[in-house]
């Protein structure tokens, strides 16, 4: 599904990523953890193609296709979805109309006509019910006046509608209370399947109690320095990151 080979990246001439190698297969959930400034959000941004980050070396493959030179919109059309730590608000544009536009732009990129209105409404109803979302919520302007939990739930709804191959959740647990965290995690768990993959970027082990990863990777100083199972997340919660630094020095 996703292959990252020897990825180096910088922002404003400051080197952030120093040779990332990562493979995520269909049906898998991978968690990326690490201290502040390790490069976690930079990795998410580079995969999604954000302009301010410059890839200086390496490759990013999606289903064996090199997407390194594609812009964010093209990557989205290929099936890359990114949930942001701080979702933006768009006054005057309803969530439903935003989703309609996104879906139809993706269809257009594949040479398809717009999704018929009846099919779109049926899909909206099905996904809203799946995620326990009040459909009145979807008529509101995108994220305007939303709480942190509502913004994150809204992004999970967008993910449900767009049905991406690869979903990247960049610190989606940031600022959420336990109830909101459970709602978001429940949505992700309902949407993951054998044909898609999820990369969860987080500081905290608590999210991984609800979205159980197949693999946990520790990113430090721009590199993945340790990988393991869910148990590694518990170890990090208990010991912090210093013990890994000590291991690396030995």
Largest sheet: 6 strands, mixed
Q: How many domain regions?
A: 1
What's the count of strands? Answer: 12
List the uncertain runs: none
Quick one: CATH class? Answer: Alpha Beta
The level of helicity is 25-40%
N-end to C-end Cα span: 34 Å
> What does the average pLDDT come to?
85
CATH topology annotation: Rossmann fold
Order of helices and strands: EEEHEEHEEHHEHEHEEEHH
| CATH architecture heading | 3-Layer(aba) Sandwich
Number of helices: 8
Give, in spatial order, the strands making up the sheet with the most strands.
Answer: 6-9-10-3-11-12
CA-based gyration radius? 18 Å
**Shape by Cα distribution:** globular
CATH superfamily: P-loop containing nucleotide triphosphate hydrolases
Structural class: alpha/beta
Report the portion of residues in β strands: 25-35%
What do you see in this structure?
With 250 residues, the chain is α/β, with parallel strands linked by helices. It has a single domain (2-249), classed as 3-Layer(aba) Sandwich (Rossmann fold). The protein is 37% helix and 28% strand. It contains 8 helices and 12 strands. The protein has helices at 40-48, 72-78, 95-109, 117-130, 148-162, 178-191, 230-239, 242-249, and strands at 2-11, 14-24, 29-33, 54-62, 65-66, 80-83, 90-94, 141-142, 166-170, 197-201, 215-220, 223-228. The protein has a 6-stranded mixed sheet, with helices on both faces. A 4-stranded antiparallel sheet has the order 2-1-4-5, with helices on one face. Strands 7-8 form a two-stranded antiparallel sheet. It is globular.
């Amino acid at each position: 599904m996703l292959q990252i080979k020897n990825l180096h990246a910088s922002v404003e001439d400051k080197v952030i990523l120093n040779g990332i190698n990562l493979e995520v297969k269909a049906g898998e959930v991978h968690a990326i953890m690490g201290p502040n400034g390790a490069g976690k959000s930079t990795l998410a941004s580079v995969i999604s193609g954000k302009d301010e980050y410059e890839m200086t070396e390496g490759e990013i493959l999606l289903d064996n296709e090199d997407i390194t030179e594609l812009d964010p919109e093209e990557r989205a059309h290929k099936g890359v979805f990114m949930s942001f730590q701080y979702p933006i608000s768009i006054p005057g544009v309803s969530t439903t109309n935003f989703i309609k536009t996104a879906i139809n732009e993706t269809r257009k990129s594949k040479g398809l006509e717009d999704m018929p209105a009846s099919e779109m409404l049926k899909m909206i109803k099905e996904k809203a019910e799946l995620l326990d979302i009040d459909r009145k919520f979807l008529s509101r302007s995108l994220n305007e006046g939303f709480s942190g939990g509502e913004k994150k739930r809204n992004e999970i709804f967008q993910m449900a509608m767009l049905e991406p191959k690869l979903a990247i959740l960049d610190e989606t647990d940031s600022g959420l209370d336990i109830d909101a965290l459970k709602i978001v995690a429940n949505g992700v768990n309902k949407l993951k399947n054998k044909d898609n993959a999820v990369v969860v970027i987080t500081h905290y082990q608590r999210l991984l109690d609800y979205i159980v990863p197949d693999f946990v990777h520790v990113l430090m100083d721009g590199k993945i320095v340790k990988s393991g199972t869910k148990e590694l997340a518990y170890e990090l919660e208990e010991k912090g990151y210093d013990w890994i630094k000590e291991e690396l020095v030995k």
